[in-house]
Amino acid sequence: MGISVPTEKLVEMFSDIAGHTQCNAVSEPDDFMNSKKAHEVQAMSALVAFLAQHCRVKQVIDVGSGKGYLSSHLSMHYRLQVFGIDSSSNNTHGAQERNRKLKRYSRANQKGKRWPREREQLPKLAKEVQREDGKDMVTEERSPTHLQATQLNSEVTVDVNSDLQEPVECGVGNEYTDPFLGALSLNAVEPVCARVPPSQLSKEEKERRMRENLERKLREGRSNNSLFLPLTSYVTAETELKDIIPELENAVIVGLHTCGDLAPSTLRMFVGRQEIQATCSVGCCYHLLSEEFDQRRSDHTLTTGKTETNSETRTEVFGFPMSKYLRDQMYICGRNARMSACLAIERVTVGGGLPVESLFYRAVLHVILKDHYDAHKSEKRVGNVYSKTSSFVDYIRRALRKLELNDLKLSDEDIQAYHDQYKHRICEMVAFNRLKVTLAPCIEGLILLDRLCYLKEQENVSFAALVQLFDPLMSPRCYGLVALKILA
Questions:
Q1: How far apart are alpha carbons 78 and 76 in whole angstroms?
Q2: 74: closest CA among 183, 235, 224?
Q3: No. of H helices and E strands in the chain?
Q4: What pairs with residue 482 in β-bridges?
Q5: Are 182 and 81 spatial neighbours (Cβ–Cβ below 8 Å)?
Q6: Residue pLDDT, tens place only, 160-217
Q7: pTM for the structure as a whole
Q8: Going edge to edge, which strands form the sheet with 251-259?
């Protein structure tokens, strides 16, 4: 049916350029990433580089770039100019710090070729990069800070405060001219000291500084021959990319495990922006998608799909459904189903198992909330409380405080009684969750096929397909949407 295409078949279909994209053998990514991230970055960057070569473009936009794993690999190994856009200034500055450490590693590697003593420092430097990367490996794909910025209707804002911090000190010795050093600029995000506190700046002054900051970064990146430029900005379906990247030319837009609505936004930008020639998008966190026809959502108008903003009526956009086919049916998936789509059946089938105890704790918490707090549903999230607790009683008290409820309303004996009352039903809960895991691929398939259908409905899209990029045991969200524009 042409729905799912193997990567090798895709390359064969569009191999209209003699030869293959060459990878500069600068350093192996395994030295700087865990095995999962290295697997994802290697597989996706090879395909993105092929798409760029096929479309004859040199620029790549990495949406939700995080610490710049994919961006830096594309720039270092494939000599592509990459603009990494992330909503979190912490991630943007983290990418800068990571680049600094990678340059230290490269410099030591160059010296080590001549002096063996310098080579002894390489493992230590590689561990420093891994330790820095590990700080944000709390969730599988993105940090909570990043998740908050994936709503489609957020305003586009650029981090104008990125040049109001203290400069990062780094000892830079003699520079070496190699592809690695040329691709990584220490000054890609260079802060300067503030003269006026940001809170006292007018809106016009913030916008002026934003433009100057972006233009300066672009100039410095070009003069330093830097191919990776991290930028801080909220990105939505309505984002004008040229406002963020004034020197934008024809490009490929990509996203590696973009959370919630950010993945649909990436696809809509691909369709709606003439300069975007191709896309490769791998989404995640389906439970964070906004749904147009879900009656339980409280922040959108169900009947019209419109909202009033500044006395003007504008049409809202949602993460699901995207295709005209499902929108015409007013199709509803629901948050519980989308939560199930995030499960990993491949890992369970090989003995990965389910977190039985934490699931049981959460289920009993829900009973307690109904019985004593008249709370059937809360906008607040308990989060990963289980990993910090020592017992069931401790879990319940921490969870209640997280929900801003009075945990002293119940004694320890009352709480433990709930555990004892329901513990014989754990086997039922396990069976129910196994059923959810079994259905997970069906729900994920529905969401992905909706996105594929959306792309195939567009008149300016010449090709669209699902491509399995990763080993599902290493990376459960393993399917990417690949699409090409009709060239004018």
A1: 6
A2: 183
A3: 18, 9
A4: 280, 465
A5: no
A6: 334 333 333 333 333 334 443 344 333 333 344 445 666 677 877 777 777 677 666 5
A7: 0.72
A8: 228-232, 81-86, 59-63, 251-259, 276-284, 479-485, 461-468
